[in-house]
Amino acid sequence: MSQSPVTSLAPDPKRWRALVFIALAQLMVVLDATIVNIALPSAQEDLGISEGNKQWVITAYALAFGGLLLFGGRIADLWGRKRTFVTGLIGFAAASALGGAAGNEAMMLGARALQGVFGALLAPAALSLLAVMFTEAKERAKAFGIYGAIAGGGGAVGLILGGFLTEYLNWRWTFFVNIPFAIIAAAGAYFVIREPSEGRNRSPLDIPGVVLSTLGLVALVYGFTRAESDGWSDAVTVTMFIASAVLLAAFVVTEAKVKSPLLPLRVLTERNRGGVYLSLGLAIIAMFGLFLFLTYYLQIVKGYSPVKTGFAFLPMIFGMIVGSTQIGTRLMTRVAPRLLMAPGFLLAAVGMLLLTQLEIDTSYAGLILPAQLMLGLGMGTAFMPAMSLATHGVEPRDAGVASAMVNTSQQVGGAIGTALLNTIAASATTAYITDHAASATTPAAQKLLAAQSMVEGYTAAIWWAVGILVVASAIAAVLVNTGADSGTPVASGDGEGVEDAVKIPVVAH
To answer: Residue 194: which of 8, 24, 26, 20 has the closest Cα?
Structure first.
């Protein structure tokens, strides 16, 4: 037997420098998810984008990114993670330059779709590089702690940066800011990152799997996006959900039969990874809804500027960083992951529960700040072991596609969260206005009613988010049953099965 499996366990001397560039790329992708939301009203006005089409600035990115993630993960396994990572960064920078220079609606939407395509190459390659480069348990805990803090807190940083750039420069800089991030990360990765050669999966590409998974995920994400704007009973919405169910079912059947599947079902059926994908997807549903409602509440109800709104999210960022790097990292090698994930999601649920008490005149320091701290601490503590477990026990050749599944669960969770919780909020707002419209007879009373009805809508949706986080906690407690991190996130490269890799952890020297 060749000695290549042993060489894959030798720690890369440049691994910590590599982490800087991987983390920078991850920050760029996560920032982009929220930074554009802040800039959207200004961009819409400048480019003459209609009210009906403005959602496509967000949707074009989400469809390309969510639909192509599994394909991107498989390309990383086939082509090499470093090469895929650098290509994704260069492409993302070019697409961002195109978006910043957009002179019309078509150019903007095309740039956003291209950002999604290259983001789908970049995101799984980044996470799988961590999985194959950090093999010693305590070091991997630190690396995933940093990665988890960025994955969780980067969205809130995007709100601050987006506010600054939109308010003091203009919306185009929310695109241009990606270019230096991407160039620095690509140059650093090219010279610093080294990946084990035996971790490649050189099997032929599963074209039917690519087509079915991409179309199925695009239909699912678009179905939820359409539900938000046109309602759940809209004919196109229903058709999209049915098409998605049929396509994804056909994808599962195909993957069980083909010789070299795009997504080997062994990646999904291992209970720890399955538990991570499910619980993380649910947590993201709750988080995306919260970002949306808290942004609206602070700007519309409380009258905060974009910059002040961004700074108002700082306690959540602080909590996530502490939860990931201090709690999760320190405890990951000592306690079982579910003892971090389940309580983490529960603590976040308690923070969310506090926000169900929102009123028009709620004190930021008295309620919103402590709620955000609890949310951040809980999510940071849970995200950190979840990111590490995403590649728990997989063979190196499957690391890219296993990483892509985490991003897919987050992306689909984000689309579901925005659509589902927005619909619940809108229904509650309408019901409140209908019940109280008769008593609002003066302009001042009508203005108060409008604000109160919005808050009623937000709190109704936040109650659902509380329930979703409790379910995420229960799933983590029941499905995630591996012990404390014992050494290696992926199986060694000599072809042993996932079950062996899980049962017999390889201890790094």
So the answer is: 8
